Amino acid sequence: MAKLTSSPRYQYLCHLLVETRKEKHLLQTDVALKLKKPRSFISKYETGIRRLDPIELMDITKALEIDYCSILKQVEKHFEGIER
User: In terms of Cα–Cα distance, which of 65, 56, 22 is closest to 36?
Assistant: First the structure.
């Protein structure tokens, strides 16, 4: 199945969310429980099958105990000077 959310910036955002989850020693199940969502919700956004809306991203960053704006700034900084 082809990825529906294939933009490099979105893929990098998902990469950051996965890396943050792993750094905090959380399983997908742990994040799903915090969000009161099925584990498949976590799997789908982490693999890029499902696109997150801004409110969902806010909830996820809160569950991961990271700043919403800072993760978006990391994506922006990573792609500075790169054509979109």
Answer: 56
Q: How far apart are the first and last CA of the chain?
A: 24
| pLDDT > 90 in the chain, percent | 83
Q: How far is CA 74 from CA 34, 43, 45, in A?
A: 24, 22, 18
DSSP state of 81: T
3 against 9, higher pLDDT = 9
Per-position b or e across 19-51, b if 16+ CB within 10 A of its CB: ebbeeeebebebbbebeebeeebbebbbebebe
Domains of the chain, CATH where assigned: 8-78 (1.10.260.40)
Q: What's the distance, CA 56 to chain centroid? A: 9
Q: Are 9 and 38 in contact, with CB atoms under 8 Å apart?
A: no
